[in-house]
Structures are given as structure tokens and as C-alpha cells.
Amino acid sequence: MSAIDPALLPVVAAREGLGGEVLSVDDDTGAARLRFVPGSNHKNLAGTVFGGYMASIIDDAAGIATWFGGGQRPFATSQISVSFLRAAQAQEPLIADVIVNFAGKRQAFVEVRVSREDGNEMVAIGNIVQSFLETKMRD
Questions:
Q1: pLDDT tens for each residue of 75-132
Q2: Neighbouring residues of 42: CB distance < 8 A, sequence distance ≥ 6
Q3: Which structural domains are found in the chain, ordered by start?
Q4: Fewer CB near the terminus (10 Å): N or C of the chain?
Q5: Which helix (H) or strand (E) holds 124?
Q6: DSSP at 9
Q7: Alpha helices by DSSP H, 7-117
């Protein structure tokens, strides 16, 4: 296990917009833990957090795990499946725990579990397929 200092990671504007921060990431396996705090702008008319917000944090969390667990190769999300288990509230801290179940030549399969920070009650589960790209990333 080779832990990376989260302070050394580049700033990701999308993650900042989601109220997220990396707590830990393993350079070898990609296993990661992130914390997100949805803002009041992430609420739906029912007063709970949008499902699209939850899908976005799952996609973001899967991305950092794929980058490190997949050998730091460029990739794109090719499939995402989210199961919403419980509603989340704005300003409620959420923890995303991520594992890379498999990273091959062409794809990686990633699982993200989102829980409430206080009490670990699970809120959502995401399964993501990432496809590795043959082209180089652009600036």
C-alpha cells in the first residue's frame, strides 16, 4: 500500500464545485476515500440532494480511483449505475469509499459506496465502467 498525500494532488474544479475533497488514495490499488458536503444549490424541490449530484460525486470518486488503480492512463466513464438508498440533505457531510474491482487493458470496474459521515448509514452505491483511451489527454 502506497498512500499519496492528498495535499499534493492537483485541484479539480468539478470536485470543488461539488464540495469535495480527497481524504486518502492508494497509489497502487486506487482505493480512495473522499468527503463531499452538498451545498444548498444541490437541493431539489423536495429539499433533499439531487440524484444527479449523487451521481456526480460517485463519478468523481471513481475517477481518482481509476487514475491510480488503472496505471495513470487517460479514461472516460462509459457506464454508470447508481442505486439511491436514502435521501441526503444539503450541508450533510458524505463519505465516498472507492475500490477498483478490476483494471484491465481496456476497462476498469469501480465500486463507490456513499455513506453519511456521522454514523456511516449508506446513502448510495455506484458501479462504474471506465474505458481507457488510446489518445493522450489534452490541456
A1: 999 999 999 999 999 999 999 999 999 999 999 999 999 999 998 799 999 999 999 9
A2: 18, 19, 49, 50, 53, 90
A3: 6-132 (3.10.129.10)
A4: C
A5: strand 122-132
A6: S
A7: 13-17, 51-69
Q: What share of the chain is helix, strand, coil (3-state, %, to 5)?
A: 20, 40, 35
* Cα 77 to Cα 66: distance, rounded to the nearest angstrom: 10
Query: pTM for the full model?
Result: 0.92
The 8-class DSSP code of residue 90 comes to T
Q: Which residues of 32-54 are buried (b: 16+ CB within 10 A; e: fewer)?
A: bbbebebeeebbeeeebbbeebb
* Angstrom distance (rounded) from CA 104 to CA 91: 37
Place of cell 429539499: 47
